[in-house]
Specification:
The chain is built from eight helices and 16 strands. The protein is of the alpha+beta class.
Length: 321
């Protein structure tokens, strides 16, 4: 049985694996903090967070403060007498909270800090065409993702891996890294290191800001590999978007899978090449992008052959950007 008493903070499915790992490894989880229940979906029904559902199933006390600075919430945290707060995929923690536990508040981040600080590291490493990424545990301080590093673990990115695939791998590896970090804290054999030590002279950290709808629109004048990486980095959600123009109507569609073909061509960007049955290729700034899986607005997600069976490309053009 591990002696550390833990308070866990997290919200999405990504955090559930780490909470589960704490329980499997015998840690005393004194409580769980997650976001308030919110309406979601077409029916706007109230939904619990993934972490809350797991915590309730595991019979753990759950706190869902609207404000992390609420005095009653702060008092409840202190009453739990946790040695360490563990934060995975949660919001920014105010100083009045992260200073409570005597052994500190640690965070798991899905990148190799100091690179890709921010809300969407998994998306941005793929969008930028990185071949490696990783995970970092660090002590939280008063700025986002800047605290002293405890452990880092690097992994390779597979060539056709998308954000959903990569997130699932990092979720499992992250749970393991949380346990290794807590073991090191308990044994007092970890030496926290400033993030500046992980930068080369003159190097600026790459960032991972939140993804907005305007960031998802494909510009077909771009290089084909860059477009392919955008699609990978945004799949399966929120997805890269493009627009067909047909009969004076604009049809938005999401692209889930693609394959780039690098070649010289004289076709204008956005030109459609298809046999109407088996393939759909779009001319880009350099090369062609083969669309493999897509979803037209209001329709089901389809493979390209099924899509072409129900969609006539005649008199259809593509909005370039």
């Amino acid at each position: 049985m591990n002696n550390l008493r833990i308070l866990f903070m997290g919200t999405p499915e990504f955090a559930v694996a780490s909470l589960g790992a704490l329980l499997i490894n015998g840690y005393n989880v004194a409580g769980v903090v997650t976001s308030p229940d919110r309406p979601a979906g077409r029916g706007r029904k109230i939904h619990k967070t993934a972490v809350k559902e797991f915590a309730e199933f595991s019979r753990l006390p759950v706190l869902q403060p609207v404000s992390l600075k609420d005095p009653d919430f702060i008092d409840k945290l202190k009453e739990l007498n946790a040695d360490v707060f563990v934060v995975v995929a949660f919001r920014m923690i105010p100083e009045i909270v992260w200073r409570i536990p005597p052994k500190g508040t640690i965070n798991l981040h899905a990148s190799l800090l100091p690179h890709y600080r921010g809300a969407a590291p998994v998306n941005h490493v793929l969008i930028n065409g990185e071949t490696t990424t990783g995970l970092t545990t660090f002590f939280i301080n008063d700025k986002i993702d800047t605290g002293n590093i405890l452990l880092r673990e690097e992994i390779q990115i597979f060539p056709f891996e998308n954000a959903g695939d990569l997130s699932k791998r990092l979720m499992k590896l992250g749970a393991r890294l949380i346990i290794k970090t807590l073991q090191g804290i308990a044994a007092n054999n970890l030496q926290p290191k400033p993030q500046s030590l992980f930068l080369n002279p003159g190097e600026t950290p790459k960032t991972a800001p939140k993804i907005f709808p305007e960031n998802c629109i494909i510009n077909w004048k771009e290089d084909v590999v860059k477009i392919h990486n955008l699609i990978r980095g945004l799949a399966p959600d929120p997805c890269a978007r493009a627009f067909f123009l047909k009969n004076d109507k604009t049809i938005m569609f999401k692209i889930f899978d693609s394959c780039p073909y690098i070649s010289e061509n004289n076709m204008p960007p956005g030109s459609i090449v298809s046999d109407g049955k088996n393939y759909l290729r779009i001319s880009c700034g350099k090369g062609f992008l083969s669309i493999l899986t897509l979803q037209a607005e209001g329709k089901k997600k389809l493979g390209i052959q099924d899509f072409l069976r129900g969609f006539d490309l005649k008199e259809t053009v593509l909005r370039i950007s």
